[in-house]
Protein 1
Amino acid sequence: MPTFVARVQDSNGSRKEKIVADNLREARANLSSRGLYVQELKQDAGFSPNFDLKNISTSLAKVTVKDKAVFSRQFAALVNAGVAMVRGLGVLSEQCQNPKLKKALLAISADVQQGVNLSDAMRKHPECFDGLYVSMIQAGEVGGVLDEVLNRLAKLLEDVARLQNQIKAAMSYPVTVGTLAVLIFFGMVRFLLPIFASIFKEIGIELPAFTQAMMNISYFVQDFKNVALLLLIVAGVVFAYKQYYKTRVGRETVDRLMLKMPLFGDLIEKTATARFCRTFGALTRSGVPILTCLEIVRDTAGNQIIANAVDEARKEIQTGGMISIALQKEQVFPLMAIQMISIGEETGELDKMLSKVADFYEDEVEQAVKALTSVLEPVMIVVLGGMVGAILLSMYLPMFSVFEKLG
């Protein structure tokens, strides 16, 4: 049986303890039965190199929206069924497939067993549970409706995952075709054009300007140093862009341009509106204070211009203003969404109206994704055909000169 190393605490203080058990759950139960509080528990890997590899894989793992949605749905079912919180967390951690989330759940379970609130325990793991998740859990604990809040969280995360999948589906086609186009163009320039270049050189004909330009590109990519230099320049541009985007001015400039882009700008605006309304509605329905809601929505906006608009709305509310008026001043969200939010404020049913707006704009995003895909498909086919056609044209233009001389 495996050996586990635990940091435990009793009346004499904190110390390390080794225990042999079949699994983590049994080891924790054995230590608890001896009156010991488990602060940390992990398997003793000894000198095996797999321990380091496991830690590396855990640190590189990413907790997806789907992982959190599945956990929320299962945890809500256990809480609703009357299962103790610590036991529920233990069961879910054992069956969790994501190593990072599994490690976090084990630590959260240990903290809860020590008497720490669930929301406070989750707040220690921001890579797994963000401010939105923790705030809703805290509101559920205070209101005694944790199972309802977990179900709302699951629904919210499932909607977010569906929205992300729609956008990824729209982008997968142009990215795939664009990558293939670049690879085909590089392959033909690198391997096919040199064959024809040697033929044209033996014949001794004067190459047309377009063919000569393509030959120059071929000569350039045949030198490994040139290719390495080109890749280095591209990497430098990407690095400079990332550094610029980290600044506030850079984020505002780039995000403003993204909102004004043809085709994509409308999609980004509708996606941001749907995310804002869905998140804001879920938070207010769970009992989170309005100002806290707006802070969380601001931090999860994904676009600095939209985040600025939400922050202005938060300041407006602090002075006794209305959310809809502040959002309208910023001219970021669609007018229809602002009018529906205004109606929700006037009728006192803001959360219901936000939910309806989110449903509407999620449908709009789905339609926009379909329209964008239908537009991008022929465009990418034309681009691919144009790149291949340019290579073929550069090879056949000199042949016309040969045919004229022979004639």
Note: Residues 47-51 have pLDDT under 50 and may be disordered.
Protein 2
Amino acid sequence: MTAFPEIPRIEYEGPDSDNPLAFRWYNPDELVEGKSMRDQLRFSIVYWHTFRGTGSDPFGPGTALRPWEDGTDSVDNACRRARVAFELFEKLQAPFYAFHDRDVAPEGASLRESNDNLDAVADVLLEEQKRSGVKLLWGTANLFSNPRFMHGAATSCNADVFAYAAAQVKKAIEVTHRLGGENYVFWGGREGYQNLYNTDMKRELDHLAKFFHMAIDHAKQIGFTGPFLIEPKPKEPTKHQYDSDAAACLNFLRQYDLLDHFKLNLETNHATLAGHTMMHELDYAGIQGALGSIDANTGDLLLGWDTDQFATDYYLTTQVMLTILKHGGLASGGVNFDAKVRRESFEPIDLFYAHIGSMDAFAKGLKIAAAIRADNALDGFIARRYASWDTGVGAEIEAGRAGFADLEKYMLEKGEADANVSGRQERLEAVVNRYLDRL
């Protein structure tokens, strides 16, 4: 029985199509920079917003109509939901999906019961993966919803909570490995503090590092070889989260000798909440070899929280894809739609409209980015702007052959610095506009 009888498999029809249930830009087999769009973008659909989101907000209960739900939190309902999820994945031609442990299976009255529930649903997930060919991009553990995690999980002041979190992550890594997950994500939803009067920050950071080293050790024991990913987020729910942005995460990983085992899973809405652009966060991670995957969404600049909207802005998707291509692609990561339909978009078909629109936006962003790169439209200007570093004193500085005394002597003899080169920001923004007009 189908949950979406009125929805066909979504196919590519081209930019002139007016069919809302067709792709205008996402052509999975089209080659871009020598790889198919499918392999460049590696689209992934999240389980939590798509199949557990209800449309509730702080001012009212959920509005979403989900006919496949029976109103219970039973394992049977979870298994039925899993089969519905794969119908949507297949019809959208999404090669990957992602989940939290507590999204796919109900939490039991004990850790043992929760583990049994997860195993039962994982049996269905594995069966559906084999049938459909859809793969698991990554799994993760929900260490933030249950009240036991009020003070954090790996950074909790309660050692028993740390132990519970470790046991839960152990199981989540094992299930991710069993399902062939290509990565494992840590999002420290409550790994931070509200007030330093009651917080031993150094001890909490030390404990978080111990937790990650334990995860590395267990992954080696079971043969899980995918990278671990940390997802930065600056605030919400805690006032100060230890994984606040890419720089904070990389500093932490380097300090605790974890950098060889971790990359970053970057999210647009989290970047803007941290006061950065997504392009900044991607580039910062990329130049340090830590770009792992992205959570593809956007926020509302008029609202100060994580709204997790579907990205449809071609400027944003072009900037994202420019930076991803610059750093060689996403490897085992993907473009993961950590986004939810609005409360007012409550019918099942809205799930399709939302994903189709954002998949098209990233596909067009990919095509625009590739065209800009092929013409060297931005990099050529950057090379000219930094030309003084390629010869003469600039090359000496970069090669480590000049110190302060050498540079003092150089400038005393020269008398004044050469004239600066204009940044041409407005011209370059117009260049990008022309590519958007052209494609």
Note: The chain has a mean pLDDT of 97.
